[in-house]
Amino acid sequence: MKNFKFLLFNVTLLFPLFMFAQQTIQGTVTDATSGSTLPGVDIIIKGTTRGTSTDFDGNYTLENVKKGDVLVFSYIGFKTQEITVSSSTTINVVLQESLETLEEVVIVGYGEVKKKDKTGAAVKVSAADLNQGTLVDPIQALQGKAAGVSITKQGGDPNAGFNVRIRGAAGFAAGGDPLYVVNGVRGVDITTIAPEDIIAFDILKDAASTAIYGADGANGVVFVTTKSGKEGVAKIEYNTYVAIDDVANDLDLQSAKSYRAYINENQDKYSDFSDAGGNIDWQDEVYRTGVTLNNNFAISGGSDTNTYRASITNTDFEGVIDGSNKNRTTARIDLTQKTFDDKLKITMGLSGTIEENDYINYGSNEATDALFQSFQRLPTDPIYNADGSYFETARVYNYYNPVASLDQIQNERDAKKYTANLGLNYTFIEGLTGALNLSYLRNDSESTYFEPKYSNTIGTQNTLIRAGYGKRAYDNWAQSMLEGTLTYKKTFNDVHNLTALAGYSYRKQDWDGFLAEGREPISNSLGADKLQNFENIQLGDIESYKGERTDIGYFGRIMYDYDSKYYLTAMIRRDGSSVFGRNEDWGWFPSVQVAWNMANENFLVENNTINLLKLRASWGLSGNSNIDSYLYQLRVGPSGTSIDPETGNPIVNLDYYNNGNPDLKWDENEEINIGLDFGLFDNRISGSVEYYSKQISDMLSVYDVPTETNYSGKVYYNGGEMENTGFEATLMGKIFNTGNFKWNTTFTYSTNSMEIKSLDGGKYDLDYRDVGYISAPGIVGVATQRMLPKHDLGTFYGFEYAGVSDGKWMIKGTDNEIYYLDDVSQSDEHKKPIGNALPDFELGWSNNFTYKDWDLSMSFRAVIGHDIYNATKQVFGNPDYITQRNVLDEALDLDGYVGGAYQSLSYYVEDGSYLKLDNVNLGYTFPKTLVKGISKLRVYASINNVFTLTNYDGIDPEVNYSGGDRDKGEIYFGIDQYNIYPKTRTITFGLNVEL
To answer: How far apart are alpha carbons 37 and 95 in whole angstroms?
Structure first.
C-alpha cells in the first residue's frame, strides 16, 4: 500500500511535466505577398510520418508535439519553411512565394544540376505545365511545350504513336526518335508510363549534352521522372475521367443526292451508270463516337529512412472507327531505403503493363482498307442485300464493302511489358559517392489476324471475294543493363565548385519471334486458332527469327564553375556496339561546354532587375546506332522456289540480301550551340534563346550497286551528309501573382532547316533520290519529293501547274516556257522544286490561370510556312473515276480535263500553315472542409483539339513533317495521302481525389 501511494504521488508530480512535453500546436498559415490564408499547406513533424494540413481558412491543429520538434511547412509554389517548437502553443507562419524557378533541378544524364547552372541546351517541363485531359501517349503531354521539340500525330488512332523529333532528323536510315530514359533506365517504352505518375520531362537537345550517351544521343534525350513516396503520412490518390471522342472533320465527298443530281445533269456522258438504289454516307457507317474511361489509384508515404509509392492505372480507349480499341493496364511500385547511417540509399522499381489492341486495316488502297474503301464507295451502293448479306459490286479494281471488312476481320494483339530496376548509391566519404544501377526490360506480344473465306453474288456470277487468310505471330524482346558511376563533388575555398564523374555501361538486347500463316481456310469458324485448317501454305509462310546486340560504354565528365560566374563542362564517351562492322565497332564521342553568368559580375550583382544573364557555348559529337543488327554482314535468305533440272524436284532458291561492309559505323552528329539564359524581376520573367548548327556526316543508308561485281545489288554504307541549323526561344512569365489571381505563361519559338549536302559521300555518284511515292488506283510510280544535294529535306518535286487549255493541263517548264503536260509527262526534263514540307517556324503558347479555387489552362500551337502535298485531292479529285467511285467536288469541277491527276504537280501543293488550340482545361477544387478526411477534391473538364485555323483544303493540316522510310534510307514527309485515321476532338470530364 505504501508503494502504491508512493507511485501515485510520483505520477501526480510528473503529470504536469508530461502535459508540458506533449502539447498541441495550432496556428494559421498566410501568403507573404497578399496576406491571404493558404488552405492545403502540409505540416510534417520532421523525421516522422506524423502531420496535418491547413483547412480552407488556413488554420491547422497538430497534437502530441514535443518541445524541440521541427515542423516543416510546405506548399506548392512557396518556399518550404522549418520552425522549431518552443514553449508556445501557437505558431503562425508566413510563407514566401517561390519565384526561384531557376533553382529547379535539371537532369543532364547520370546526374543533375540546378537550372541556373546548366551549360548545355537542356529544358525542363514540369507536370503542372503539361497538357491535360485524355492522353493516348504520355509524350502528348509535352506537345508544344519545348522549343525545338516537334511532336506530331497524323490522325487519332488510339493504337498509333506520336512522331517525335528534336531539332530535326539526325540521319537517313538510323531512325529519328529520341532516347527515352525513365528514372535512369534507358530504353523504356514511354507508353508504359501512366501520365498521372509523371513529375517532369527533362530534354537534352544539343550534341554536347547528349554526348554522355554516345552512339544513342544523336536524336536527343528525353528523361521521364515519375512520382515517388515522400516522408510523412500515407497519401492516397485517385484520378478518374471519362472522355467522348468524335471525328473532328471528315472528307467532303458526294452525298447520294448530289451524286445522282450530277449524273442526271450529265446523262449524255454517264448514261451507262448503274444506280444500286442506296443512300449511304459511308464515313458515317464506319465512324462512331468513341468513349475512353481511365482510372488511376496510388498510395505513397514513408519515414525518414524509407519511402514507397505504388500505383495502378487502367485506360480503355475506344477509337472513332468501329473495331479500333486499346485497353492498357499499368502498375508500378517504387521503394527507397536508407541504411548504414544514411550512407547507402537503395532504390527499387517494378512496373508491368498489359495491353490489348484491336486494329483495323488502313494506310493502303487494298481490299481490306476500311478508310480507303469507305472513301471510294459510291453513296448509291447499299450496305446490305435484301437477304441481309453484304452488298458487293465490281465498279473498279479493289472495290469492297468496308462494313463487311470491319465486321469480319479479326486483327488483335496482346502485349506484356515489364521493367525492373535496382539502384545502389553509397557515400564513401563526404563528396564521394558510387552508384550501381541494374535494370531488366521485357516486351512480349502475341498477334492474331484472320480474314474469313467467303463468296458473294455480283450480278449473275458467283464471284469469290476473299480466299481467306490467317496469321499468328509471337515477338519477344528483352534488355539487360548494368551501369556504374563514381561521382566526386567538392567546393574549394567557397568559390571553386567541382563535380567529376566516371562511369561504365553494359547493355545486352535479345529478341526472337515466330510467325505462321496460311490461306484458304477449310472453315471460318476456327479462325486463326488452328492454322492446320488452311489449305494453301506457301514458302515464307512459316518464319522465325532470333538476334542480339551488345553495347558497351566508358564515359567521364568534369563540371567546374568559379563562384557561379564561369562554367566549364567537358565529357567524353567511348562506345562499342555489335551492330557495326568489325573495323568500326568502337568510337569516341567528346564534348565541351562553357558559360559565363554575367549577373554575378560586380557590374551587375547589385542590379535588382537582372537575376540571371548567362551566355553559353558548346561543341559536341554524338552518334546514331539505331539500326538493325547484322547489316554489316553478307546475308543470305530464301527467295522463292524452282525445279531442280536434274531431279525434277522443287527446291528453294537462295539469294543475297545485302553485301557485307566491315567499315559500317554510326552517323556522326557534330553540333555547335550558342545560348543565352536570362531571369528578370525576381525571375518573374525568364527564358532562353539558342542557335545551333549541326553537321551530320557518315549517314547510314542503303545503296544500289551493280550485281556484276557484287554478291547483292544492295549495300549499307556511311555516305550522306546533311546540315541542320535553327533558332529557338523560350519565354516564361509570371504575369500576375496576387493572392486570388495568378497567371503564368510560356511562349516557345523554333526554326529548323535540314539541307542535304551529299547523298552518298561521293562514292556512288548518287545525284538524287525520288521519295514519297503516291499509292492509288491509276497512279503508278509517281514520286512527290526528291532528295537533292543543296536542297532542304522535304522538297516537293514535279511539274509547275500553269492552268488548263482546250481540256488539257498546262505546265511551266524549267525554261519558263508553257507546255502541254501530256507532251512532257514521260520526261524529267521540266520537273523542278514545287514546294517544301519543312515549316519556317513553330510556335507554342501555354497559359495557366488560377482564381481562388478555380484553375484554367490552355495551350496553343502553330506551325507556319510549310507545304502539304494533297494527295487526297489528287486521288479523289480525279474526274476519270466519277462513275466508279465517290469523288470530291474537285472532280466535278475538273470533269473533262484528263491527265493531271497522274503526275506530281504543283496544283496539289498547298500551304499547310495552321494554328491549333490543342487543349483547354477548367477545374474547381472544393474546400477541404467539405468532406472530412479528404485533403483534395477537384473536378475538371477539358477539350483536346478544340479548333484549327488554316487555309489548307484537306481534312487536317497536321501531317507528319518529320518522318521517313528508315528501311530504305529515305526521308520524306508532308504528304496527306487520304487513308489516314481521322483526327478527333475529345471532351473529358474528370475527378482528382487525395486523402
So the answer is: 10
CA 848 from chain centre, in angstroms, equals 23
DSSP 254: -
Q: In this predicted structure, which of 56-60, 76-80, 247-251, 705-709 has the lowest mean pLDDT?
A: 76-80
Of 72-81, 293-302, 503-512, 522-531, least confident by mean pLDDT is 72-81
Looking from the CA of 280 toward its CB, the CA atoms found within 13 Å total 25
Backbone angles phi and psi of 825, in degrees to 5:
-65, -20
For 379, phi then psi, to 5°, come to -70, -10
The helix, strand and coil proportions of the chain, stated in percent and rounded to the nearest 5, come to 10, 55, 35
Contact 83, 65 (CB under 8 A): no
CATH dotted code for 101-229? 2.170.130.10
**Are the CB atoms for 547 and 511 separated by under 8 Å?**
yes
Nearest to 333 by CA among 316, 356, 309: 309
Tell me how far apart the alpha carbons of residues 756 and 762 are, in angstroms, rounded to a whole number: 13
Decide: 818 and 810 in contact? Cβ < 8 Å. Answer: yes
All structural domains of the chain with their residue ranges:
2-95, 101-229
* Segment among 18-27, 408-417, 580-589, 978-987 with least mean pLDDT: 18-27
| Percentage, residues of the chain above pLDDT 70 | 94
164 has a pLDDT exceeding 70: yes
Q: For 20, which DSSP code?
A: H
Architecture in CATH of 2-95: Sandwich (2.60)
Which residues, other chains included, contact 313 with Cβ-Cβ below 8 Å and sequence gap of 6+?
194, 196, 197, 294, 295, 296, 297, 328, 329, 330, 331
- Mention every residue, 6+ apart, whose C-beta is less than 8 A from residue 191: 137, 138, 161, 328, 353
Q: For 553-579, what is the mean pLDDT?
A: 94
Between 278 and 32, whose confidence is greater? Answer: 278
Q: What is the mean pLDDT of residues 184-212?
A: 91
Residue 953: pLDDT band with limits 50, 70, 90: very high
Residue 532 grid cell = 492446320
Pairwise CA distance, residues 282 & 274, whole Å = 18
Contacting residues for 121 by C-beta, under 8 A, at least 6 apart? 148, 204, 205, 206, 208, 209, 616, 618, 673, 675, 690, 692, 728
What is the three-class DSSP state of 453? Answer: coil
116 vs 924: CA distance, rounded Å: 34
Cα 306–chain centre separation: 33
Nearest-angstrom CA–CA distance, 925 and 990: 12
Is the whole model's pTM more than 0.70, yes or no? Answer: yes
Using CA atoms in the order 593, 598, 601, 602, what is the torsion angle rounded to 10 degrees?
170
Q: Specify burial of residue 86 (Cβ count, 10 A radius: 0-12, 13-18, 19+).
A: exposed
